[in-house]
């Protein structure tokens, strides 16, 4: 290995920036350093003090940036979530979902049949799936029935079809947030009119 050259699988802060920029065009080296200072990512350091990011660090940054952008959560809340669930940005297994929601295997299978849970490649899920299942559990505890949940899934699918008609990832991300905001406002307006 040439002196000064990073080990295989280790990324410099510049390489991390290149990896994140396509999905997060506004991210900068200063932003990555700030997130490190806030304790949201902890890259290793060389003897000379250079940051060495692993793939897990990149995924953690991707999770933090997406939650900031999509859910507008403060960094303190994101840090608390990551500390409570260290694997929040890592793939989630079926066993993780069962343990994290208190659901049984049959309930999980039923949600898959209803299209409310869709595993990705190799049967893996994400932290968003875990959050969705917890939300579903709360909703069903409040009396929401399966047909209501399927209606929510159908509405989301319609939005996905509309969003896929746009090719620019930045536009899609912005529109996804606007769709969510508009949906919330329309529901509120409908409830005001019916009361």
UniProtKB/TrEMBL annotation:
<dbReference type="GO" id="GO:0003677">
    <property type="term" value="F:DNA binding"/>
</dbReference>
<dbReference type="Pfam" id="PF13411">
    <property type="entry name" value="MerR_1"/>
</dbReference>
<dbReference type="InterPro" id="IPR009061">
    <property type="entry name" value="DNA-bd_dom_put_sf"/>
</dbReference>
<protein>
    <submittedName>
        <fullName>DNA-binding transcriptional regulator, MerR family</fullName>
    </submittedName>
</protein>
<dbReference type="InterPro" id="IPR047057">
    <property type="entry name" value="MerR_fam"/>
</dbReference>
<dbReference type="GO" id="GO:0003700">
    <property type="term" value="F:DNA-binding transcription factor activity"/>
</dbReference>
<dbReference type="InterPro" id="IPR000551">
    <property type="entry name" value="MerR-type_HTH_dom"/>
</dbReference>
<feature type="domain" description="HTH merR-type">
    <location>
        <begin position="26"/>
        <end position="84"/>
    </location>
</feature>
<keyword id="KW-0238">DNA-binding</keyword>
